[in-house]
Amino acid sequence: MAEFSQAELLHKVLNTAQREGDERVRAIVGRIVGDLFRAIDDLDIRPEEFWAAVGWANKAGAGNEFGLITAGLGLDRLLDIRQDEAERARGMGGGTERAIEGPLYVAGAPLSQGEARLDGDPEQGRVLFMEGRVTDVGGRPLAGAVVDVWHANTRGEYSHFDGGRQQPYNLRRRIVTDADGAYRYRTLIPSGYGVPEGSATGDLLGRLGRHGRRPAHIHYFVSAEGFRTLTTQLNIPGDTYLDDDYAFATRDGLVIGLERHADPAQLAARGLSEPFFTSRFDFALPRA
User: Fold this and answer.
1) What angle do CA 59, 104, 158 make, to 5 degrees?
2) Which class for 286: exposed (0-12), middle (13-18), buried (19 or more C-beta within 10 A)?
3) Would residue 198 count as lying in a domain?
4) Nearest to 181 by CA among 130, 230, 136, 117
5) What total number of domains does the chain contain?
6) What is the DSSP string of 132-144?
7) Percent of the chain at pLDDT exceeding 90
């Protein structure tokens, strides 16, 4: 048995390793635990508040929500800011701006050469034809690059995360660029979405006096051998939350332009009966 002061308890918690362990993990956990000890003391956190927070964390974990929470607390964007600053300091800046990955990526989407159609489920929406090139920062095309693209449907739902209401890999594809570094795809313009009602994330944001809405966007991984893989997302113009994204992920250079087409001859050429939209975005990758 032993009696501890606060300082003695923290020292014991951080210095009772019985084997070598991982020094990096010990340093990180030590910093976080030390900060929590100080927060409990400085803010006079009561036992009922502490255990309510533990219950909230259990609910968040059971709902696989921590990817939503880290985005909402700015941690995902912080990592991007730090990477941007580190690359600029090393003289490695340039290329398309990065943006957060988010928690809804699924690996192994169907692979297409040059072009693809993303929407496989029957759904009413605004048709979008997207195209562009993948180049290095000097504008030289990167043939054989992979554009891994995914986004929500017109209800703001992602396949694999909506209780099976969409077929597997709906609105998810990988496209290999052609000899000119070009990619093309057809899809439906997505809707924005919000954190689930009744979720731990929604509860936290509500207590912070914040909403949990994201503007409509399209996610990308863009990769090519010898180049830094780009994680980014493009935003749809005109969205209500374009300048008020709960995840802080909107960047000025990543808002695309949309051109509306309603000419009967153009509709016929595309096999469509309703107006459609086109857009273009070129990705530039720096060397690894």
Assistant:
1) 100
2) middle
3) yes
4) 136
5) 2
6) EEEEETTS-B-TT
7) 91
Q: Are residues 115 and 222 in the same domain?
A: yes
Does residue 218 share a domain with residue 264? yes
Compute the 3-state secondary structure of the chain and give helix, strand, coil in percent, each to the nearest 5: 30, 25, 50
Considering the domain architecture, whether residues 84 and 132 belong to the same structural domain is answered as yes
Q: What is the pLDDT of residues 111-155, one digit of tens each?
A: 999 999 999 999 999 999 999 999 999 999 999 999 999 999 999
Nearest to 150 by CA among 225, 231, 75: 231
Q: Which two tokens stand for residue 201?
A: 């994330």
Q: Which residues face 158 on adjacent strands?
A: none
124 and 244 share one domain: yes
Q: Is residue 54 included in any domain, yes or no?
A: no
188: which 2 tokens? Answer: 């439906």
Residues 40 and 87 in one domain: no
With 90 as the cut, is the pLDDT of residue 169 above it?
yes
Do 127 and 199 fall into the same domain? yes
Question: Could you tell me the residue range of the domain that residue 251 belongs to?
Answer: 75-285
- Domain-embedded: residue 67: no
Given pLDDT bands bounded at 50, 70 and 90, which one contains residue 94? confident
- The pLDDT value recorded for residue 1 is 58
Tens of pLDDT, residue by residue over 206-252, are: 999 999 999 999 999 999 999 999 999 999 999 999 999 999 999 99
